[in-house]
Amino acid sequence: MKALEGDLFQLSQKFPKVKAFRKAISGKTIPLPGGVKPSEIVAFRNVANDVLNMDEYVIRTKKGMETLKVVANYYGDTMGDVGRALVDSGVRKIGYFGTAGGITTPDNPVHVGDVHIPKTIFDPHGNLANEGVKNSFLSLPSDSLDPELKSRLKRGTTLSNVRSPMVETHEWLEKTKSKGINSVEVELSHLSRSIGEAIKNGKKVDFFTSVIISDVPGSEETLDKLDASKRAKTFSRMLDQYIEAMGIENIELRPKIEEGGHKSPVFIDSPTSKAYDLARKLIPGSLEDHMILRDHIARIIRENTPSETLEKINLSSNKIKLEDLPLSPKVKSEIASRLSHPYDDLSLHRALELGNSRLSKLVSKLKNKGVSYDLQLLGDTSKGLFYPGSNIEFRLAGLDENTRKWVREEVKKLNLGEGPKLKFMETVPPGTNIWSLKKGEGFWKEPNYLKTLYSKRLFEKSGLVYKTDWQGRPVLEYDELRGESKRANLLEALAEMGLYANYGAVLESSNVSVKSPKFEKFKGKLKKYGATIEFVDPATDPRFEPGAFGKTILTPEGEIKVLLPKGEKVRSLALLEEFTHVVDLRRKIGEYGKDYMMEVFRKANLGDKQAKAMLYD
Predict the structure, then answer these.
(1) Per the structure, how many domains does the chain have?
(2) Nearest CA to 572 among 489, 513, 484?
(3) Does residue 61 share a domain with residue 37?
(4) Exposed, middle or buried, 17 (CB in 10 Å: 0-12/13-18/19+)?
(5) What is the SS3 assignment for 536?
(6) Measured on CA atoms in the order 342, 344, 346, 351, is the torsion positive or negative?
(7) In 308-328, which positions are buried (b, 16+ CB within 10 angstroms) versus exposed (e)?
(8) Is residue 583 part of a domain?
């Protein structure tokens, strides 16, 4: 395409009077239908955040407009949590295309560039990982595949996972061949198992997966001699198969985000976009700066209205009446209360400043009295829905009756004048959202602490995150993965480390000094999750697995320990793997209890396969 554009541009310059060339080329690019310049549109947007990194496309299928998320590959068992997070957020069709090492035998020769469509997938312990999960590619007729691909395509193969390519010794290779394994890689068993869990829990998920052979252990085509050109042709043809099998008919192009500000967030999720469009139409046009009011109303609509209902709302009319909308009475009432006293961003910030003044004075006086308490915000403030008409509801846990009486009198004095009133809640109804600020030390240190807190809460609590788009421009996004996923915490913790990895990370496997800032950060994160480090000799310590970079254990005393090999440096990959294992172990302890998990570790050390599988999953 670039070459064609270059030729047309040269011809247009050489023959400026030929109208055909002027129509065919605009500047140095071929214009799109309607005269749109390619520089003015985008095919996708990147939605990288603290949890996941992905590119999102708006696609057209037989069902209409849908979303295609192209997710960055994550190393090893972390891919299982990515799968859970995607399914939890509503994704019901997943395609995974990865690289794998091929296991070649005289009866089943394997070459770099071959594509395997696995039927059976085993985890590193030899347990079946795709129980209940059918590879949707195997349901397609064989004659539906690209004829040019057939000679390199192997259907119904057996794939196994390894902890890392570093364990691929000659002894391992012979053992793997004897089991009839056709290919090996690092992520697929974890992803398959996470999808199997979803299917077992009643969710319908279509799973399309294949791997392209990147190397053949034991041959001349090993990892250190990778040649991407040998698999380029089959790779691109197999991508076409994914597009066709998953029903992708077209990609919708969208205008680039305009420069200047972040008042018009871009949403790939259609119901969320509809909620924001509806909120804009409900807000009086006289309010020029009403971003937070719009976000509040959009959130009230989105969180309390089914997607199907939102999709059916017609926004073509310039006049939208709240009473005519198919929203619940509760939603209508809450929106009406805000629209009855519409607020712009400036008035909300002013209200927060006045509220901050009152609450900070109260906290300062409590500090001077030397009493012990836990300051807890309640109501709209704790939920990220505060507006100028709200009270600032709070509770002071741990006070004696005399101090509570003193607080009641102080609140009456502080509430004189304009601005939001403090509301001292001595009893809290069940189910109330509580936001603990401990002693509220921030009020002593920051001039507008409440406003800082609220800005953060507004985005955190609602699922809205403030970030930049793929071009570096500030936008607001409704982040389903953070707002809805039950497994987001592990991925969030992984992001905190700043140690994303993919298959290439194993190949590079850089070393990190145990005296470096990066390792100190690692230790700090472990401490946060109640874990400690023990340096051991891998050759003599029976707890350390051959070929491993590190290991996370639960000691008989119930302590979480990360075992790392002795020396001045450790593998960067070990920091990534063991940190995710620590966070996952903490989650399991919270779910099953410490005694139960200690028993699981004891059984695993004795060779119990079920216990090992639980720890590894």
Answers:
(1) 5
(2) 513
(3) no
(4) exposed
(5) strand
(6) positive
(7) eebeebeeeeeebebeebebe
(8) yes
Tokens 């497994």 identify what position? 487
CATH classification of the domain holding 448: 3.30.460
Q: Is the pLDDT of residue 560 over 70?
A: yes
- DSSP annotation of 123 reads -
Q: What are phi and psi of 524, to 5 degrees?
A: -65, -40
Buried b (16+ CB within 10 A) or exposed e, 141-175: eeeebeeeeeebbbbebbbbbbbbbbebeeebbee
The tokens describing 566, both together, are 């002795």
> 168 and 101 in contact (C-beta within 8 Å)?
yes
Tell me, yes or no, whether 180 and 95 share the same domain: yes
- List alpha helices for 370-464, DSSP H: 379-383, 401-414, 442-445, 449-462
Rounded to whole angstroms, how far apart are CA atoms 45 and 28? Answer: 24
Q: Is the pLDDT of residue 593 over 60?
A: yes
* Domain match, 232 and 140 both: yes
Q: Which amino acid is at 74?
A: Y
Q: How confident is the model at residue 288 (pLDDT cuts 50, 70, 90)?
A: low
Question: Domain for residue 432, yes or no?
Answer: yes
For 327-337, write each residue's pLDDT tens digit: 999 999 988 98
Question: Could you list the residue range(s) of the whole structural domain that residue 407 is in?
Answer: 345-464
Separation of alpha carbons 477 and 469, rounded Å:
9
Question: Does 429 fall in a domain?
Answer: yes
pLDDT at position 226: 59
Query: Phi/psi at 285 (nearest 5 deg)?
Result: -65, -15
Whole-angstrom distance, CA of residue 593 vs CA of residue 586: 10
The answer on 174 and 89 residing in a single domain is: yes
pLDDT of 306 > 90? The answer is no
Residues 85 and 230 in one domain: yes
Q: CA–CA separation, 142 vs 74, rounded Å?
A: 31
Residue where a domain terminates, one of 291, 316, 339 = 339
174 within 8 A of 103, measured Cβ to Cβ? no
Question: 29 and 176 share a domain?
Answer: no
Look at the alpha carbons of 147, 148, 154, 160 in this order and tell me if their dihedral is positive or negative.
negative
**Integer Cα distance of 163 and 578 in angstroms:** 13
The last residue of one of the domains, among 411, 434, 464, is 464
CA-closest candidate to residue 103, choices 26, 161, 37, 19: 161
Query: Are 183 and 65 members of one domain?
Result: yes
Tokens representing residue 283 in the block = 């807000």
Question: In the structure, what pLDDT confidence band is assigned to residue 30 with cuts at 50, 70 and 90?
Answer: low
In which band, very low, low, confident or very high, does the pLDDT at 441 lie, cut at 50, 70 and 90? confident
- pLDDT above 90 (res 388): no
Domain membership of residue 259 (yes or no) is: no
> 533: which 2 tokens?
């480090």
Is the separation of the CB atoms in 37 and 29 below 8 Å? Answer: yes
Q: CATH code at 180?
A: 3.40.50.1580
Residues 167 and 95 in one domain: yes
